[in-house]
Design brief:
The chain has one domain (2-202). Strands 1, 2, 3, 6, 7, 10 and 11 form a 7-stranded mixed sheet that branches. It has a 5-stranded antiparallel sheet with strand order 5-4-9-8-12. By secondary structure, it is of the alpha+beta class. It is globular and about 45 Å long. It has 6 helices and 12 strands.
């Protein structure tokens, strides 16, 4: 649980730092624990100097592969949709901690590109235990390069290695890849910032 929450916290910190550096004078509001935004899949509110407010969803990924994990079903047992489908966020900030990269995805555009092609991508199931309750989550594994090529507005920003606390942020991958590289194995489910399951097993 500490590893999951730690990854989520570092991802949020990286996202916050990038937003503040990108738009000096802006404000970032953490709404992870606000029920009004939890149901919308929004973790942060980015208030720009112009007065515009953008909803941000943050994902922290500890895997070494450069592939996104788009959550399609959050709870199979209850048949609830995943955050990739229902999130009302304007941007998804996907942080690859091992590679020290921040990807900024305009969620609506990426979703519109992905949905007609969903069947082309493999699905990965994860089992999460919260107390005595265990539930299954399903997501699609999508190579970053395919999204970057198809949606030009997606940004890939290198982060300062070691900027976040923890081994994932400081440890260099054994084989440096470019965003075009497709990982050899599917990632575990990415940890969304507001979630801290007690245990997650990839099936």
């Amino acid at each position: 649980m500490r590893g999951v929450q730690g990854a989520a916290d570092r991802a949020v910190q990286h996202a916050r730092t990038w937003m503040m550096e990108t738009a000096p004078g802006s404000h970032v509001h953490d709404v992870q624990l606000d029920p009004r935004f939890q149901h919308r899949g929004v973790d942060l509110l980015w208030e720009l100097p112009t007065g515009e407010v953008r909803g941000i969803e943050v994902k922290g990924d500890r895997q070494r592969s450069r592939r996104y994990w788009f959550e399609l079903v959050s709870n199979v047992e209850k048949d609830t949709p995943g955050c990739f489908l229902y999130s009302g966020a304007d941007l998804m900030m996907y942080v690859f901690l091992a590679q020290a990269e921040l990807h900024v995805l305009p969620l609506k555009q990426v979703r519109e590109w992905f949905l007609p092609r969903a069947k082309a991508y493999s699905l990965k199931h994860t089992s999460t235990k919260t107390g005595a309750i265990r539930y299954t989550t399903v997501g699609a594994v999508v190579p970053c390069r395919e999204v970057l090529d198809a949606v030009p507005s997606v940004l890939c920003i290198p982060l300062k290695r070691g900027a976040g606390k923890g081994a994932e942020a400081e440890e260099a991958p054994s084989e440096r890849e470019t965003p075009a590289g497709e990982a050899s194995s599917a990632p575990e489910a990415s940890e969304s910032a507001p979630l801290a399951p007690t245990g997650t097993d990839v099936e």
